[in-house]
Amino acid sequence: MDLLAPVQESFLSNVRGGKGGMVLVDDAEMERLVSLLGVPPALTTGGSAANATLTAARLGLRTAFVGKLGNDATAKAYRDRFEAMGVDSHRFKVGGLPNARCLALVTPDAERTMRTSLGAAMTLLPGEISARDFAGCRHAHIEGYLVFNRALCSAVLDAARTAGCTVSLDLPSFEVIAESRDWLLGQLRRGIDVVFANEDEIKALFPGHPADPRQLAAELAAHGVVAAVKIGRDGAWIARGGEMYRIQPVPVPDARDTNGAGDAWAAGFLFGYLRDHPLPLCGALGSLLGAETVRHLGPHIPDALWPDLRRRVEGTLGGKLGLV
Questions:
Q1: Quick one: three-class SS letters along the chain?
Q2: Where on the phi/psi map is residue 60: left (φ > 0), alpha (ψ -120 to 50), or beta?
Q3: The model's pTM
Q4: Strand order of the sheet with strand 226-230?
Q5: 179 and 155, same structural domain?
Q6: Number of separate domains in the chain
Q7: Are 140 and 27 part of one and the same domain?
Q8: Domain check: are 256 and 287 in the same one?
Q9: Potential cystine with 69: which of 75, 160, 243, 312 (Cβ 3.0-4.6 Å)?
Q10: How far apart are CA 301 and CA 261, in angstroms?
Q11: In the prediction, which pLDDT does 321 show?
Q12: pLDDT at position 324, please?
């Protein structure tokens, strides 16, 4: 569960570690930071792949989620939200610890500093994952934070492949890539269909290469994947084989919070990709969803805005949305 707290820059002096990024903390540190806020944080379901799943469901994809919930009221609220959005929740596993929480401290520049207590999520073991978890699914989208636990990530990838799914991977932070580069490249050789990355992540995957995102997207695509390299306010590059497409950004003059923007981008892209739309159109959908997300606090677009947003998506597609 995400705990969302707008804070002034000065508040970060209370936070161990630098501004930005995500650092794991224990329950005691989580409680200390929350107690310093003064006002209780807002709550919303979080987790990178979970955010992408919920957004994809709002667009009309039939979705399910595999993860481990805790044994507390937070876990129940988490499951209830997924079920309310039409996501198949029967593949959740339940642990004996409290639910995972991530405190997102959002400064006035719309940057977020995240501190995460993994709780029950940390107890998910490779042996709990099998191809049955992906039965009936066409595609499996896997978040980069899972690479913190390579044995678990390997089990998830193997199970999804065994079940016949195509696979997308949202690359982890550049610090994790630096420690996992050989493993990640090995997984690309074993078969991943789509890879999402930002500038820092793609540079970490190919150190010593020219820093031009366009060239790095081509380098990633040479590993047999669809490469989607996001470059923030400057849009994105998408590469597949010898194809290369520049995706123009959607301007956002009133950005409030970047939390979840990359997840929404992935959801928009995959919505188009799984319906066999051309890659430039998939990228345009990603940009549209990502841009709308940064206009609001938290990783999700507010419910009240979805009717208008769906009409904008329909206009981009030139037709009606529908389940797939």
A1: CEEEEECCHHHHHHCCCCCCCEEECCHHHHHHHHHCCCCCCEEECCCHHHHHHHHHHHHCCCCECCCEECCCHHHHHHHHHHHHCCCECCCCEECCCCCCEEEEEECCCCCEEEEEECHHHHHCCHHHCCHHHHCCCCEEEECHHHHHCHHHHHHHHHHHHHCCCEEEEECCCHHHHHHHHHHHHHHHHHHCCEEEEEHHHHHHHCCCCCCCHHHHHHHHHCCCCEEEEECHHHCEEEEECCEEEEECCCCCCCCCCCCCHHHHHHHHHHHHHCCCCCHHHHHHHHHHHHHHHCCCCCCCCCHHHHHHHHHHHHHHHCCCCCCC
A2: left
A3: 0.90
A4: 139-142, 166-170, 194-198, 226-230, 236-240, 243-247
A5: yes
A6: 2
A7: no
A8: yes
A9: 75
A10: 10
A11: 52
A12: 40
How would residue 323 be classed by pLDDT, with cut points 50, 70 and 90?
A: very low
What is the CATH number for 167? 3.40.1190.20
Quickly count: other Cβ atoms within 10 Å of residue 26's Cβ.
11
Whether 172 contacts 179, CB under 8 Å: no
Residue 54 and residue 32 in one domain: no
Q: Do 225 and 248 belong to one domain?
A: yes
Quote the domain boundaries for residue 206: 48-66+125-324
Claim to verify: residue 25 and residue 139 sit in the same structural domain = no
Say if residues 263 and 299 touch (Cβ distance below 8 Å). yes
Residues 248 and 209 placed together within one structural domain of the fold: yes
Question: Rounded to an integer, what distance in angstroms lies between the CA atom of residue 68 and that of residue 128?
Answer: 10
The b-or-e profile of 201-232 (16+ CB within 10 A means b, else e) is bbbbbbeeeeeebebbbbbbbeeebbbbbbbe
Under 8 Å between Cβ of 26 and 178: no
Does residue 256 have a pLDDT over 90? no
C-alpha separations of 319 from 109, 225, 324 in Å: 37, 28, 14
